[in-house]
Amino acid sequence: MVSEALCFVLTPPSHLGRMLVRSSSSFFRHTRRKGIGDPLEIIIVILAVLAAAGIGVATWLALKSRNDAILAQAAGESAKGIVTQAEEERRILLLAAQEEALKLRNETETDLKDQRQEFHRMESRHMQREEQLERKVEAQEEKERELASQQTEIEQARIEAEELKAEQSKALEQVAGLSVEEAREQVVKRGEEEAVHDLAKRYYELEKEYKEKANQNARKIITVAINRLATDVVSEITTSTVSLPNDEMKGRLIGREGRNIRTLEALTGVDVIIDDTPEAVTVSCFDPVRREIARLALEKLVSDGRIQPARIEDMVNRAQEEIEQIIMKAGEQATFDAGVSGLDSELIHLLGRLKYRYSYGENVLKHSIEVSLLSGMLAAEAGANVQVAKMGGLLHDIGKAVTHEVSGAHAEIGAEIARKHGINHSSYRGILEHHSDDHETVESFLVATADAISASRPGARRESLELYVKRLKELEEVATSFTGVERVFAIQAGREVRVMVKPDDLDDVEAASLARNIAKKVEEELVFPGQIKVTVIRETRNVEYAK
After folding, report:
1. Beta-carbon contacts of residue 357 (< 8 Å; ≥ 6 apart)
2. 501 forms bridges with which residues in the sheet?
3. Structural Rg of the chain based on CA atoms
4. How far is CA 405 from CA 107, 372, 397, 399, in A?
5. Which residues, listed in sequence order, are joined to residue 536 by a DSSP beta bridge?
6. Which residues pair with 243 in a beta bridge?
7. pLDDT per residue rounded down to tens, the chain (547 residues)
């Protein structure tokens, strides 16, 4: 019963009813088995049961309170643990934050320390620079003071020197008997004489050096050019002679009352000379083309035998046509021989007219071809424009084809003709300047050189004896006009002049200067083809006799 009562007490209220029912049924079954049927006993038992139930309820409530207290204590202990853990974590985080803050503080202090050290270093350098500047300023001030002092001393010395100079000048004037201006003039004159002597000496040395080099190069170029060209020089005269089969033909040429010869002269513009020369008549004219037309017409008339004014006019017209064809062929052949192309037909015609033009006995067309070839060779050797030089050389005497029609120098006439027909500038300058001393282009200088080479070749030209002698005399007179000249000799057909000077009047340097002055005066006063060599000879002889 006690055990059941304990179970009843410990049973939760939700199961209490069921337990009371089970206990009551069990009690009644037990009383029936035992035969207990006293109501008081039953009531006591019920009361006991109820008391036990109250006790059990109270016990349960007590136990529940206890359990709740235990649970509350456990919850408090759990909360306390959580708080403790939170406190521990807070403490850990605080320590970490403190360590981080300490680290940042240390780093900051280190940076500040480094910055302070750098600042101290910069401040130290700045102080050093200031000290250096101060020292430099002090040194500069010291130098300025020294310079000022020296300047003062120099000024004093200058004043003293001027005073001494003035005193010396007065003393020198008294001793020498010359004023300062006179002495200065003498010193300047002496300096000028020495400078002139030194310059002349230096010029002589440089001239000798460069003449040797120039002569070597010139001889090489000219020799190569001349050796590559050799042409026959035809010697012709300005009058033409027509052979006759007999002297009777002279009368037929004259005609009745001279009408035939007058007709021929009127149509051709020539002079027909019929003299005592057997079986020949002479045609004379200033224009070589007209002279050639008259000669050809006369040959046709003599061959035909019918000589009358109408026939003369017909033959003259035929001769003109033939001459025009010959002129064009000669011009074309000249351009072909010279290797020049692109010329206008009128220029070719004028060039062909030079076939009948002579200068100093030299055929101008052949001379032009020769000059063109020489110019091209010289240009090739000198590295200039070969075609420009050839064209300038071929056309350099083109003005001679119309000199009897147009007044002026043939070089200017030819240059104007070339300009009108579109010849390039360089070739134009070669035509204009082939007789000039100043040359704008290299090709112009080469054309002039080739012209001089062609004209100076032995046998190329023929001059009269009077002109030759006159030129030699003029050359000797130019050299004799200088002081210190003893004797002058013109040799090599006027290509060289040798000057004998007095050795006592001129030294070697002055002799070199004399040669240069003579050559310059010859260039200014005389006209000559090619070049003239001036040689000054100074000879000193000492003779003694042993007795």
Report:
1. 288, 363, 364, 365, 400, 401
2. 485
3. 71
4. 114, 25, 15, 10
5. 499
6. 280
7. 434 444 444 455 445 455 554 555 555 455 555 444 456 767 776 777 777 777 777 777 877 787 877 887 887 788 888 888 888 888 898 888 888 888 888 888 888 888 888 888 888 888 888 888 888 888 888 888 888 888 888 888 888 888 887 777 777 666 656 666 776 777 777 777 777 777 777 777 777 777 777 767 766 666 666 555 544 433 345 577 777 888 777 788 888 888 888 888 888 888 888 877 777 888 887 777 788 888 888 888 888 878 888 888 888 888 888 888 888 888 888 888 888 888 888 888 888 888 877 776 678 888 888 888 888 888 888 888 888 888 888 888 888 887 667 777 788 888 888 888 878 777 777 788 777 777 788 888 888 888 888 776 655 555 555 566 677 788 888 888 888 888 888 876 677 888 988 888 888 888 888 888 888 888 888 776 667 888 888 887 777 777 6
Find, among 406, 407, 427, the residue nearest to 418 by Cα: 427
Question: Could you give the maximum distance between any two Cα atoms of the chain, in Å?
Answer: 227
In the block, which residue shows the tokens 């004028």? 350
- 463-to-286, 360, 523, 539 alpha-carbon distances in Å: 18, 6, 21, 36
Q: How far is CA 211 from CA 204, 214, 215, 216, 508, in A?
A: 10, 5, 6, 8, 17
Task: Determine whether 208 is exposed, middle or buried from the number of CB atoms within 10 Å of its CB (0-12, 13-18, 19+).
Answer: exposed
| 476: number of Cβ within 10 Å | 17
355: which 2 tokens?
Answer: 């076939």
How many Å apart are CA 423 and CA 391, to the nearest integer? 9
Helix (H, G, I), strand (E, B) or coil at 535: strand
Decide if 257 contacts 283 (C-beta within 8 A): no
Residue 488, beta-bridge partner list? 499
Q: Rounded to a whole number, what is the distance in angstroms from the first to the last CA of the chain?
A: 203
Report residue 195 CA to chain centroid gap. Answer: 38
Instruction: Supply the pTM of this predicted model.
Output: 0.44
Contact predicate 396/347, CB 8 Å: no
Whole-number Å distance between alpha carbons of 31 and 43: 13
> Coil, strand or helix: which one is 283?
strand
Distance (Å) of CA 25 to CA 3, 32, 53? 17, 11, 16
